[in-house]
Specification:
The protein is 42% helix and 21% strand. Helix 4 links the parallel strand 4 (86-90) and strand 5. It has helices spanning 17-29, 40-49, 68-77, 95-104, 116-127, and strands at residues 6-13, 33-37, 54-59, 86-90, 108-111. Residues 9-127 form the Response regulatory domain.
């Protein structure tokens, strides 16, 4: 039997304190529980140690230690996490970066600075019918 995801938990991987606080505030106001990883190593530890995947991973590309491209691959390789939506959130706007993220297994790519309402709409799109 496949693992059921935690329908209200979002893993946020973001090394910028201000952006991490903004994301946590926005998501928690919508009723989500936020688990925050501030670098790629912490993200890998959380992914490898959690029995139940979150409902979604919101992932920066430029991270200390392990970048977001590699974290996507870690998510996709983890049993039970294969279908967890991954949304990349990054300042990198080059087409090659977007293609690389999508090829690595990301479901979507949002460029910073982002509009909170657009971010929430994209999250809702992925979570529709998953709860």
């Amino acid at each position: 039997m496949p693992l059921q995801n935690d329908a209200t938990t979002i893993l946020v991987v973001e090394d910028d304190d201000h952006i991490a606080q903004v994301l946590s505030f926005i998501l928690e106001r919508q009723g989500y529980q936020v688990i925050l990883a501030t670098d790629g190593l912490k993200a890998r530890e959380l992914i490898e140690s959690r029995d139940q995947p979150p409902c979604l991973v919101l992932l920066d590309v430029m991270l200390p230690y392990i970048d977001g491209f590699e974290v996507v691959q870690i998510v996709r390789a983890r049993a039970g996490w294969e279908n967890t939506p991954v949304v990349m959130l990054t300042a990198k706007t080059m087409e090659q970066d977007i293609v690389r993220a999508l090829d690595a297994g990301a479901n979507d790519y949002i460029v910073k600075p982002f509009q909170p309402s657009e971010l929430l709409a994209r999250i809702r799109r992925f979570l529709r019918g998953r709860a």
